[in-house]
């Protein structure tokens, strides 16, 4: 069991919701999907590679027959899966510090949600409703979301520069090379092992 | 459709685990034991199959009771959660898995209710089974949504090599930089992308210059 | 925010004394009963945060305890286990997490720090070495009388004195001591750029008191995690003590060699490493030359942001100053960094040598770093691990702080530039270790009330 692989952490969270509130949450998500500014906060946080929320209505747990008992539940459930860089504490701290309004909109429909501020109660809640990952794979354990974005910038600059490098005279090359270096200079950080987890 | 974000597909599968009082150890524990021993690096099943950016497998024992005044309730089944962020669509991704790592899929999902008797070899049955276990993602976020796994690995390789090249050629005269760069670019483009799942920088190329 | 009770808070916590010399005494405790007597006798010698209306004293005295020290003093177990885990473990056991490995690993520390020898830190700051001697003599006399403890080590430190005036210069030649945060309720002349950025992205305000002191609201709008009972914690704080050796010969040689390749020249290269010219002028405000008018103007010397310099062509993303206090560099008007601020005390140790004088890395020379914070793990350890020994938040991958990083001959420092030959892009690789850790630990600096409770064995967990 490990929630961590290289530079990413796999967070799993499940919270119960009264079914009538689920519909409000669906509207919130519909809006979120269509409101760019709330999404941009997630992008600007810059340490989430992928994240998803999945509403599981109480009747919608997969039911395959063959002797499997049908679920009999009072609550709908909200599942949250995140793939983030950095430490658990850093992640929840950041969520609480800059996304509290958005998070409250998403989780306030869940039972006993204390609000995302102040952060200690929020952390206690997340810790309570978190369940652990048995197996976690990433194709690039040595890279964070920031590293990936840097790599893509370097790749496209490199492709553009390579296309003209061969035909250039040494002086033209020198000018183009400087422009290439200026394009990529802020994206040259090394990738590799993450810091040790405390 | 929230199962996709750009070109990335977000797969969410919940497979009920067989509840058999005669199984020792129980099926959920057998899944956990199998997963605990599975490599998470280059020889991970997901590294051998195409298209997985990040994926997790989780045995979900139950829902979680958050305390009074909410009600305590329990699931009747345990579920195996498979969350994957991948290239392609539902059919192409799962077909890729079935083509490459059928034995692992069978070893894991044979503990789940309704998994085809012939396992992943029964391609249609396998896809239909996964479809029956799939949940629709309500909201899906991806930091980068337009790059495939091979393109991403290649970009990481390029980034590391370019950084080394620039460092090694600082202050060199333009003729040398140009000559070395053309060599370097040719080498880099002929390299296969590095293996998925590998930790650490994959160094398959010398960047020349005065530091090597 | 009510007024702080300065008579209950140790002076060292509330203000930098600005006294030119210091001596730190390290005690090992041996007998709980007699140790408590010792604490009670030292109690009336401890300097509080009260204003010095009659001028600065000849010397000051302050006290802190390691977790082993508190165990020696026989605090109840129910209280001991409420201290934060990192404090219970001590700095030596946090080495891997902090990146204190290789030459910085505890195996290479001074002998006094290699085991749990140090239970008490006594900090003496003074006007003169004679004043330190006198204070130390008084402390040692008390120690002799009370017994229960032995002196296991001392460390002297002193500001560089130029023209009879103590300076804030350190051995590499940089002017230090600009960055300490302001806190609500802590009396100090206010300076823009030292607190937190407000939502307008321009105005600065003091940080919440609870980022420094236990028992007050912090930037998350709650009381910091603290040991119980509250009276033991309130008005106290935690201190990180680190003896940082500086390899001055390596630094000077490296700077000469690299600047021969760098179009911007030696002083600009030095400035890019730290984010300030050696006189203290922020390169963000004056990228081409040092400007004493800025460096010496409290309204300007810390009053800047990085929002207009996202690509780091003025101040590199990897510059020390920008790493440890990123201001608005991570967006959200600085809200991601307000709970990662640290108050630094401390002074250089070892002889100062002019640029033209010979130096060796083996010379005993460096800086005593003493960082005060309400949470060692959230503040100091986070900054050390994520921002000094790692670079992801600064979009620098695994790159470490060029000056403070534990490079071991690897590592990279990129100076982003432009098309001007005076500010070219420049990459430094294969970095040497400029600074090495020689030891230290985590200390709890209690309030005067809490010291009294400890002395009288009146700590009651609930």
Structure report:
The complex is a heterotrimer of chains A (198), B (212) and C (462). Chain A has 198 residues and is α+β, with helices and mostly antiparallel strands. Chain A has helices at residues 19-34, 36-45, 88-98, 100-107, 119-129, 145-165, 170-184; strands at 4-5, 8-17, 48-56, 76-85, 135-138. Chain A has a 4-stranded antiparallel β-sheet. In chain A, strand 1 and strand 2 (8-17) form a beta hairpin. The radius of gyration of chain A is 22 Å and the shape is elongated. In chain B, strand 1 and strand 2 (8-16) form a beta hairpin. With 212 residues, chain B is of the alpha+beta class. Chain B contains 6 helices and 5 strands. Helix content of chain C is 24%, strand content 18%. In chain C, strands 9, 10, 11, 12 and 15 form a 5-stranded antiparallel β-sheet that branches. A 4-stranded antiparallel β-sheet of chain C has the order 2-3-1-4. A two-stranded antiparallel sheet of chain C has the order 5-6. In chain C, helix 2 (32-43) packs across helix 8 (129-146). The longest helix of chain C has 18 residues, at 129-146. Classes of the chains: A alpha+beta (198), B alpha+beta (212), C alpha+beta (462). Chains in contact: A-B, A-C, B-C. Strand 5 (135-138) of chain A pairs antiparallel with strand 3 of chain B.
Give the topology, please:
The complex is a heterotrimer of chains A (198), B (212) and C (462).
Chain A: E1 4-5, E2 8-17, H1 19-34, H2 36-45, E3 48-56, E4 76-85, H3 88-98, H4 100-107, H5 119-129, E5 135-138, H6 145-165, H7 170-184
Antiparallel strand pairs in A: 1-2, 2-4, 3-4
Chain B: E1 4-5, E2 8-16, H1 27-37, H2 45-48, E3 52-60, E4 79-87, H3 90-109, H4 123-133, E5 139-142, H5 149-168, H6 174-190
Antiparallel strand pairs in B: 1-2, 2-4, 3-4
Chain C: H1 11-14, E1 21-29, H2 32-43, E2 59-65, H3 67-72, H4 77-80, H5 85-89, H6 95-98, H7 111-114, E3 120-126, H8 129-146, E4 149-158, E5 161-162, E6 165-166, E7 196-197, E8 204-205, H9 230-233, E9 237-246, H10 248-261, H11 266-274, H12 292-295, H13 320-324, E10 343-345, E11 348-349, E12 366-373, H14 377-388, E13 412-415, E14 426-429, E15 435-445, H15 448-455
